[in-house]
Design a protein that fits this description.
mainly alpha, Endonuclease-reverse transcriptase
Length: 98
């Protein structure tokens, strides 16, 4: 129900909250060991042929687009530093154009 969601978010913008949590999860995935299932699934590349037409937008592409909107440079290095990545996630929660 909507009132339950509003209680959980405490007045936050739901779109920014979702995008911030997606960025947070992306950092978690990239710090994970390569043998973990979640990371394997995220980095998996199917061997079969793609269908015709425009390629589908991948989850990772959306996260990278959000990071570029935040004007985050060298995010692959910043992911490894948890405190710096947490600051980026907090910035995403308050960034209006996200």
């Amino acid at each position: 129900m909507n009132y339950e969601i509003e209680d959980i978010l405490k007045g936050e913008n739901i779109v920014r909250a979702i995008k911030a949590r997606r960025i947070r999860w992306y950092g978690h995935l990239k710090r994970m060991e390569k043998n973990k299932h979640a990371r394997k699934i995220t980095e998996w590349n199917p061997d079969n042929n793609r269908s015709r037409g425009r390629p589908k937008i991948r989850w990772e592409d959306q996260v990278r687009k959000d990071l570029s909107k935040l004007d985050i440079q060298e995010w692959s290095k910043k992911i490894q530093d948890r405190t710096q990545w947490k600051e980026i996630v907090e910035q995403a929660k308050t960034y209006r154009q996200l």
